[in-house]
Description:
Elements: H1 9-14, E1 15-18, E2 28-32, H2 37-48, H3 50-63, H4 67-82, H5 90-106, E3 109-113, E4 126-130, H6 137-140, E5 153-156, H7 166-172, E6 175-177, H8 180-188, E7 193-195, E8 211-213, H9 220-228, E9 232-238, E10 245-247, H10 252-261, E11 267-269, E12 282-286, H11 300-321, E13 332-334
Parallel strand pairs: 3-12, 4-7, 4-9, 5-6, 5-7, 8-13
Antiparallel strand pairs: 1-2, 2-3, 9-12, 10-11
Helix pairs in contact: 2-5, 3-4, 5-7
Amino acid sequence: MGANGTLSEAAVAAAEEERPEGVGGEAMMFRGSNYSLPRTIAALALWLGGIHFNVILILASLFLFPLRLAALVVALQLVFMVIPLNDEDKWGRKIGRFICRYAMGYFPISLHVEDFKAFDPTRAYVFGYEPHSVLPSVVQLSPIMSGLCLCPNSKSSPAVFYTPFLRQIWTWLGLIAATRKNFYYYLEAGYSCVVVPGGIQEILHMDHDSEVAFLKSRKGFVKIAMQSGCPLVPVFCFGQSKAYRWWRPGGKLFVNIARALKFTPIIFWGRYGTPIAFSTPMHVVVGRPIELKKNPLPTIDEINEVHGQFVGALQELFEKYKAKTGYPSLHLRVL
């Protein structure tokens, strides 16, 4: 979806608009409501099952399948790793709409917009989304924010786009690889982008008692927003960290491996030990846009100033809404 003021089909099908109490009467809320047990299970399996499916195939090829079948399975995975991605594929877009429609209602996911009228559907925005947690689930369902007519593309770790099957599904959901080239290209083309600044680095610092935003050294997204002249928008999701149980190895070796792979291998599981996430209500809070003047060559001091504004706005958003969304004692660590 481009920044053209038109609601996507997924958003129209998946969101019900309400006006709750809010600041100055301007707060808006969109809530996923579609739920059908078999369709929702199918949507969640398609959306989140790719990682576990690949692991099962690899283990089965190593220990269960005869050599010829194992070779065939590995060859099939390699093919799906390299075949070109097509985000305009007719059936792929249908699958993406199906996933968005029924996955949103499962948790359910609610979108709170502090000042709906502050957004201009003809402009591109940079949404800085936190936290990453095990999986930034709501980011993958990018049409959840298309009620704002702003969000066609979300940025994900490049490692995802080398993962068989998963790369196809997430492309159809509107995700793109989190590269500088992609960021510039889509903003210049008039598309808004959602980026998780802390990225997979946050997984190394997660705990079970607080939220973490690895932001102090992450300033590239701020620089790109300034160079493009696109407003910067803080976004925080409450409840996402409860969607999965997880276990992470400790030690310096694990950290070095994760950094080398640009991917953090952890063990995580959902309902009944499956990839299906726990049905924890999620509340995505969208703050007011931070307006920026286009600055092709921002200085370090200018970048630091805007970065400080963003971090401050995110912390303020977190403190303002944590009690309203059911987490009054939750603490946010900014690293």
